[in-house]
Amino acid sequence: MPFKPISQKFTDFVIVRDDSRCINCEVCVRQCSYEAHYWDDTRQRVSFDSSKCTGCHRCAAQCPTSCLTIRRNPSEFRENAFWTPAFIKHIYKQSDTGGILLSGSGSPADKPVYWDNLQLDASQVTNPSIDPLREPMELRTYLGAKPDIAAFEETAGTFRLKGEMPPQIRLEYPLMFAAMSFGSINFNLHKAMAQAATELGIVYNTGEGGLHPSLYGYGANTIVQVASGRFGVHKDYLNAGAAVEIKVGQGAKPGIGGHLPGEKIDEEVSRTRMVPLGSDAISPAPHHDIYSIEDLLQLIYAIKEATRYRVPVSVKIAAVHNAPAIASGIVRAGADIVVIDGFRGGTGAAPTMIRDNVGIPIELALAAVDNRLRDEGIRNHASLVVSGGMRCSADVVKAIALGADAVYIGTAALVAVGCTLCGRCYTGKCPWGIATNEARLKKRQNPDVAARRLANLIRAWGHEIQEMLGGMGLNSIESLRGNRDKLRGIGLNQVELDILGVKHAGR
Ligand code: SF4
Ligand code: SF4
Ligand code: SF4
User: Fold this and answer.
1) Within 13 A of 77's CA, how many CA atoms are on the CB side?
2) How many domains does the chain have?
3) How far apart (Å, rounded) are the C-alpha atoms in residues 192 and 203?
4) Is residue 128 in a domain?
5) DSSP 314
6) Residue nearest to atom 5 of ligand 1 (CA)
7) To test the ligand 2 pocket, which listed residue (33, 53, 69) has its Cβ within 8 A of the most ligand atoms?
8) What H or E segment, with its residue span, contains residue 477?
9) Among 50, 69, 152, 301, which one is least packed by beta carbons within 10 Å?
10) Cβ contacts of residue 370 below 8 Å, gap of 6+?
11) pTM, full prediction
12) Where does [4Fe-4S] cluster 2 bind (predicted)?
């Protein structure tokens, strides 16, 4: 009997098959990329090994007779409020492997979600609400530096802004698809985001993996990212997008770099990233040319020179303790957009301890950064974008009321195309065909179908945002930005309310 690692003896999930309905069609065998289902030659029927199950639910969703159920393993350890099963299983895994624990997706840790403690206002008798079905409701927003004073000149009865506006990104919804690199997710998803963004009049972000040559045509709806690994970065790439984003940090893994395993570097990824086929693509933790705000300024202006000052330059950081001071430095270094990524932000792979223990909630970081930039009188010098934990349109509305100009959605976009947050993206075997470059798996995502689902999601959220704006008596997203009087806290202490800059409900 071969040695079975102790971690596999305590499975997270159990597979339950209703044998009276199973027709032995082997669909589950083909659908499970972790080989939890298999054909048992001895018994001449399908069988399973629950220890291999990641809880992705792909088999249950595809079973033609709906006879599969995936449950949390009901077998429990002795109750212990301190040594929870997660800690015990982590130790089993590490003593089996000797390696660091890895996780995909955003942190599931049981920590406060401030969105859930914020309630929106609604108009009643005075300042009546607005019906978005009958009256205009503006969701369009522009990202980029705004002038200190808006001066106008009149020519033959028409007014024009005096002077040149800095470069802007125009968004028809205050939503963008977050950075997810080519390689960590596959080409079909990148194409779907590019198509959906173009159809909607918003943008998607390449992430740090470069831009596939066949997607250059979607450049007007693309933000191209420059990260510490400089994968796929060249002059044409920088000039292909509507903006360039310098990624300094990521909410899911602040302070550490990235690692795309060699198994995910196929020919297309290798060509696009400009890395050898099958070799690991390692992004260093720091940019080796950025050790100060002055260094960052040099890179921002090098990119502005390379793009002839046509597009805004954005800088993305993780939400950490001193985010307001860092954001202030970034704006003073010439960035047109600052992106703050919260600790709930998704990732293809992060050390579990980092993902669940480093960084701060995006709600607090956003409010603190917006305050700091306002206090310093430089809020208009850059737009503020947040990412990392937008689960629904109400989260978006609350983020904008706290001071964001727009938000990135990453995990929600993946969920829209089937992701079940199983957290095993780092295996490269995503059964939903998302975080995988295996040919048989990635074809599970049809770019046209995925693009339609993504566009549907953004439109649905757009309708809901309009409803919420109208309910508050506002007719444009601009009127909501930083309008914290439209928020009230419930169940928050005074320190939290002070940081968020909102009153408690009842006041
Ligand atoms: S997919 Fe469903 S019906 Fe087919 S073999 Fe698996 S469990 Fe049985
Ligand atoms: S890993 Fe996914 S597809 Fe495989 S058995 Fe578990 S739920 Fe089913
Ligand atoms: S992308 Fe795939 S592997 Fe990653 S969490 Fe979602 S379903 Fe799981």
Assistant:
1) 15
2) 2
3) 12
4) no
5) E
6) 24
7) 53
8) helix 477-480
9) 152
10) 379, 384, 402, 403, 404, 482
11) 0.95
12) 32, 53, 56, 59
What is the model's pLDDT at position 1?
47
Buried-state track 469-500, b at ≥16 Cβ within 10 A, e below 16? bbbbbbbebbebbbbbebbbbeebeeebbebb
Task: Tell me, rounded to whole angstroms, the distance of Cα 81 from its chain centroid.
Answer: 32
Whether ligand 2 lies within 6 angstroms of the CB of 59 is answered as yes
Q: Which of 276, 218, 217, 287 is nearest to 249 (CA)?
A: 287
The residue contributing the CA closest to ligand 2 atom 6 is: 53
- Tens-place pLDDT, residues 433-465: 999 999 999 999 999 999 999 999 999 999 999
Please, what is the average pLDDT of the chain?
Answer: 95
Task: Please count the CA atoms within 13 angstroms of the CA of 494 that sit on its side-chain side.
Answer: 0
Residue 130 domain-assigned?
A: no
CB of 354 within 6 A of ligand 2: the answer is no
> Does the beta carbon of 46 sit less than 6 angstroms from any atom of ligand 2?
no
**pLDDT confidence of residue 259:** 84
What range does the domain containing 59 cover? Answer: 6-99
Whether residue 132 is contained in a domain is answered as no
**Phi then psi dihedrals of residue 353, to 5 deg:** -65, -35
Q: Would you list which residues are annotated within the binding site for [4Fe-4S] cluster?
A: 22, 25, 28, 32, 53, 56, 59, 63
Contact 9, 27 (CB under 8 A): no
For 193-243, the pLDDT digits (tens) are: 999 999 999 999 999 999 999 999 999 999 999 999 999 999 999 999 999
Ligand 3 pocket, CB under 6 A: 56, 104-105, 414, 419-425, 430, 432, 434-435
Measured from the CB, is residue 423 less than 6 Å from ligand 2?
no
- Beta carbon of 54 within 6 Å of any ligand 2 atom: yes
Q: Which phi and psi angles does 261 have, rounded to 5°?
A: -65, 150
Phi, psi of 144 (to 5 degrees): 150, 170
Q: Which residues pair with 69 in a beta bridge?
A: 16
User: Can you tell me whether residue 281 is helix, strand or coil?
Assistant: strand
Please tell me the number of the ligand nearest to residue 31's CA.
2
pLDDT digits (tens, 9 = 90+) for 310-333: 999 999 999 999 999 999 999 999
